[in-house]
Design a protein that fits this description.
Layout lengths: L1 H18 L4 H48 L15 H12 L9 E2 L3 E7 L5 E3 L22 E11 L16 E9 L2
Antiparallel strand pairs: 1-4, 2-3, 2-4, 4-5
Helix pairs in contact: 2-3
Length: 187
């Protein structure tokens, strides 16, 4: 009878142990915390990356906005528009305008590009001559068009993104160079 009572005691102990819920929440939290923490770190890092990308786009738009503000003159006709009118005279001011975002001096600008373009029905711009000799109209680029080519400027802004949690998030292993191009029609 002693053997039977010992096995009953063991089964009773096992039943009590299995039924005891004290500390279960702590054990579950210890199992789930790394998963939730990893997801949270990645959400924060991706959100900061997306915000940085928007700031780079804003920087490029501010740079070409300055060109429109300073270089756009109704007296400049396509035939008299000088070659490379703004890029040589406004590069410092454009860089300063681009660096007014929260990214500051981390934003760098490429060279300003100017030219005459025709807009296709899909919205894609296609080059239509040079600054010194633009095409008379867009018929060669857009079927049936009689519109004159527009004078456009564009600039590319770049920023090197540094992950918030290097080595811990997925953003650490992806490309960290952010580049955005902004276009502006002057005429």
């Amino acid at each position: 009878m002693t053997g039977f009572s010992r096995s009953t005691e063991r089964l009773g102990f096992l039943r009590r142990f299995m039924g005891d819920k004290a500390g279960a929440a702590a054990a579950e939290m210890a199992l789930w915390f790394p998963v939730v923490g990893f997801l949270t770190l990645n959400v924060v890092d991706v959100a900061v990356y997306i915000y940085s990308k928007m700031q780079v786009e804003t920087a490029a738009e501010q740079a070409v906005g300055l060109v429109r503000q300073v270089c756009n003159s109704s007296s400049l006709l396509p035939a008299t528009y000088p070659t490379d009118h703004c890029s040589s005279t406004l590069s410092t001011q454009m860089t300063s305008a681009a660096q007014q975002t929260t990214l500051g001096t981390g934003v760098t600008l490429g060279t300003l590009s100017e030219g005459y373009y025709c807009a296709k029905t899909s919205g894609v711009l296609e080059a239509a001559g040079t600054l010194s000799s633009p095409s008379a109209n867009c018929s060669a680029k857009v079927t049936g068009s009689t519109a004159k080519p527009g004078l456009y400027v564009n600039v590319q802004a770049s920023y090197t993104y540094v992950p918030v949690f290097p080595g811990l998030s997925i953003m650490s292993y992806l490309s960290t160079s952010i580049q955005q191009t902004a276009w502006m029609r002057l005429q």
